[in-house]
Amino acid sequence: DAGVIQSPRHEVTEMGQEVTLRCKPISGHDYLFWYRQTMMRGLELLIYFNNNVPIDDSGMPEDRFSAKMPNASFSTLKIQPSEPRDSAVYFCASSLGGTGYSYEQYFGPGTRLTVT
Amino acid sequence: DQQVKQNSPSLSVQEGRISILNCDYTNSMFDYFLWYKKYPAEGPTFLISISSIKDKNEDGRFTVFLNKSAKHLSLHIVPSQPGDSAVYFCAADAGNMLTFGGGTRLMVKP
User: Fold this and answer.
1) Is B44–A101 a contact, with Cβ atoms under 8 angstroms apart?
2) Quick check: A91 and A22 in contact, CB under 8 A?
3) Percent of chain B at pLDDT exceeding 90
4) What pLDDT is attached to residue B43?
5) From A4, A56, A101, residue closest to B32, measured CB to CB
6) Nearest C-alpha of chain B: how many angstroms from A93?
7) Do the Cβ atoms of A93 and A32 come closer than 8 Å?
8) Distance (Å, whole) CA A115 – CA A109
9) Backbone angles phi and psi of B15, in degrees to 5
10) Model pLDDT for residues B33-75, shown as the tens digit of each residue
11) Across the strands, what pairs with B5?
12) What separation, in Å, do the N-terminal and C-terminal C-alpha atoms of chain A show?
């Protein structure tokens, strides 16, 4: 298995532009998570899906952020319009999940976003 | 409001010695704890975990200890190797959602 795949690996964009980050989870995993890592706030959960349905988006910072999971093998995180403070590394992770525990989450390599 | 804290941003250890990484939490609802290791330009990878019903879990050179009364867990690596140099995150779970600490950068010197 190729693991969790994220694209692009690096994204540089200008303030005000729309940014779309993509993720392909591990086949068979029921849960998909989007995280953001910054120096100030560390690794924080933005949103997670179970069986393609958003379960908790309380970590999404603003309405400028949106996430979708149209099918079990693909998810997007969109920022529109982007701002310099959105600059961070965005990780996607997936897991088998279940009730009770998160189980082991497998992370993708991340997308480093720079908004100028 | 940080529910999971790693108070040491960095730690330097000599090869062959023990590395001890610490983590404190405040939410008593957390019932499962995990450690992740992260190399530069890579995503975090799972290392070891422990359920709240246990106080110790061992896997090779890695042992995690949990002190529920103190709301404290630690990761012991012995013997430490240069390849262990990475950022280590502790994470706590209260049901399908992980809360991560800020990470500790471990440097193992040859």
Assistant:
1) no
2) no
3) 88
4) 95
5) A101
6) 9
7) yes
8) 19
9) -55, 135
10) 999 999 998 999 999 999 999 999 999 999 999 999 999 999 9
11) B24
12) 36
Beta carbon pairs, A and B, within 8 Å: 60
Nearest to A71 by CA among A104, A110, A24: A24
Comparing alpha-carbon positions, the chain A residue that sits nearest to B3 is A44
- Extended strands (E) in chain A: 5-7, 10-13, 19-24, 31-38, 42-50, 53-56, 65-71, 74-79, 88-95, 106-107, 111-115
pLDDT at B96 over 80: no
Q: Which residues of B touch A48 (CB under 8 A)?
A: 96-97
Residue numbers in B near A107 (CB within 8 A): 36, 43-45
Size (chain B), residues: 110
Query: Tens digit of pLDDT for each residue in A31-43?
Result: 999 999 988 888 9
Q: Which residues of A touch B95 (CB under 8 A)?
A: 99-102
The model's pLDDT over A73-86, given as tens digits with 9 standing for 90+, comes to: 999 999 999 999 99
Which regions of chain A are under pLDDT 50?
99-100
